[in-house]
Design a protein that fits this description.
The protein is mainly beta and 80 residues long. It has one helix and seven strands, in the order E-E-E-H-E-E-E-E. The strands form two sheets. A four-stranded antiparallel sheet has the order 4-7-6-5. The chain has a three-stranded antiparallel sheet with strand order 1-2-3, with no helix packed on it.
Length: 80
């Protein structure tokens, strides 16, 4: 059972979210996060230009640190 689906993101539980890898993620090593998905990653709204660096992702069964950034235009993205 999914709690939320937005674009290529799905929140399955309070601890599990997944994203279907798209061209941007594969080529640029970054991808946007819909505003309704951001509460999964942080319980506060980031200021424009602010970055969280302590998010852990499981990619190909390996844990990796990921940055969550809020761009100056207000949109969010993750950077691998």
């Amino acid at each position: 059972m999914q709690l939320l689906k937005s674009y290529s993101w799905v929140i399955l539980s309070e601890n599990i979210a997944y994203k279907v890898a798209d061209k941007t993620l594969i080529q640029d090593k970054e991808t946007g996060i819909p505003l309704d998905i951001t509460p999964f990653f942080t319980n506060k709204q980031l200021e424009a230009g602010e970055e969280l660096k302590s998010i852990k992702f499981l990619i190909d069964n390996q844990e990796q640190a990921i940055s969550l950034k809020r761009k100056k235009d207000g949109r969010y993205k993750i950077v691998l």
